[in-house]
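Subgroup meeting minutes
Present: P.N., E.W., G.H.
Scribe: E.W.

1. P.N. recapped why we're keeping a running log of single-chain structure predictions: easier to compare across weeks, and new members can see raw inputs and outputs side by side.
2. G.H. added today's entry (220 aa).
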Amino acid sequence: MNKQYNDLTDRIKISTPLSTSAVLSIDNDNDIGMPAGSFKPELLENTIRPLLGFLGETGSPLMVNVNPISNFDPEYLKGPWNPDYKGPGQPRVAAEYYICIFDTILDRFVEALNKEGYGSGRIRVLVTETGFPTDGEDHGGIGTSPFFSVGEKYIKEIAKEYHSIITSRVLNGTNLRPGVLSQVYLRSLFDEKWRAGEAYDQHYGIFRNDGTKKYDINFN
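Output recorded in log:
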């Protein structure tokens, strides 16, 4: 990265995305709204500290991927995917719940940066992807995951609400960095039927593979 930066001088910023797994998981005994972020010890010396040193020197952001349903134990985070949550207005309640998780993940990274001596916004955090899937099986439909037990229409409503309010929420910052604008990139414009991983990883698109729109989004 240093060589690439030297070649590019200050015209282009260089970084690399981290997944949520780079910071310690929240203990089941901790409240979901109380970030207890620390970078994993096994990553510190050879990966995290050299990376943070580079980012601090060059003014580049720390890039993170934040996909709330991918990183938490459904047995611990009981809630909006439960059929009992169905009803008028409940998709927005569910989306707000997942955005609370989004905020908590970001604050975990901020807390981890603080512990490494990069507090007070010395390194800004950029969200390179976040989103909410609409299906749980390889070719559409609802899988066996508890995330999708509420039914296809309801899960799409949650995805619609999540995408609609994420931009306005990030304008307000998070608990540890209030009022700090974080750039956020949505995952993704189209479904990715070729993508490996969990079945729902293929269904983050706002549009289907054939180009048809799943739902409208209000960014106001």
